[in-house]
């Protein structure tokens, strides 16, 4: 949380700064005084990128709606709605959610947002993670059709914009009948497009061999750069859209977390540290917490004056043309505003990109590169 501490104007909440650029103001960020210079200004202009072959242009900083559903500690619907409205105010036109996020809660909040706003908002949801056990056999036509009906109801719509298979087991990518079932749902008008959300690069490469896969969602951030090596060029060749998920490494790459940070019992950053409930890659990007904190301290030294680390981490992602959008989670308006500001910051220099790569190579590569 950033709090303004000295300014000629009256104290105001950070999210309002999106419309009122701060000039040389001092802020308290996690208890530390930081100067925000003229170099970091919120101008409020979002940039848009094509989403594969869909014809849609999506905000390059979009919105990840997992945390507003649950599994991230307590969230209130009023904060979540305010965060969603802030996203639309900042030009976000694409939201990623899933049926399983709060068992429909996240989807229902998005439906409410859509009722309250007139702007076009594209919603990508997901199906599959409600299967218990979560097996490849569960990804059959009748289960998928039933999951789609639930999402249609939650989102109060007749047709889903984009349906993604939700971290399906690897065998699913060897089953053409699963993709046939998705084609049937498109023909029936239940979904407009489909894509996949994958855990590993190998799954991403297999998925895009199916010609109607429009998008791939994958973890991509300063701690997980591997998708850029082989997968991004292949996806670009086939005009497949890429959603960069967990872009802030579950908050680590905001620079606000410390050894003393506490997480609620129902926050996956506490209960899934070692992959106890789902793939450990989804929690802190699979990076050991202590090692992650050390890498973050090195990244902190690279920050251009006045640039918050969250904005830096998102700007790093936007350096890759293959990425359609990053989908940072946001629980409160101030977080969303800070994240969206990354779209109108200048690109990071080649020297900064190399410095991030060097930190990754030295501190993290051995533990994560081959794994995902
Ligand atoms: N298998 C899958 O398909 C899958 C898996 C994971 C994620 N996703 C998608 O990807 C999206 C993004 O990933 P994620 O939400 O896991 O992680 P993330 O975007 O890396 O981190 C989000 C969290 O960081 C904190 N945060 C965000 N912006 C901040 C800011 N400016 N300053 C300080 N703290 C900030 C918030 O939590 P606190 O305030 O509590 O710290 C927020 O919930 C999800 O919402 C979801 O849509 C999909």
How would you describe this protein?
- This protein is of the alpha/beta class and 372 residues long.
- The protein has a single domain, classed as Alpha-Beta Barrel (TIM Barrel), CATH 3.20.20.
- 32% of the residues lie in helices and 16% in strands.
- Helix 8 packs antiparallel against helix 11.
- The two termini are 31 Å apart.
- The site of NADP nicotinamide-adenine-dinucleotide phosphate has 30 residues, from helix 10.
CATH superfamily assignment?
NADP-dependent oxidoreductase domain
Mean pLDDT over the full residue set: 90
Q: How far apart are the termini?
A: 31 Å
Q: What percentage of amino acids are in beta strands?
A: 15-25%
Total DSSP helices: 11
Look up the CATH topology: TIM Barrel
Helix-strand pattern: EEEEEEHEHEHEHEHEHEHHHEHH
Give the tally of β-strands.
Answer: 13
- Mind telling me which CATH architecture this is? Alpha-Beta Barrel
Concise structural overview:
The protein is built from eleven helices and 13 strands. The protein is of the alpha/beta class and 372 residues long.
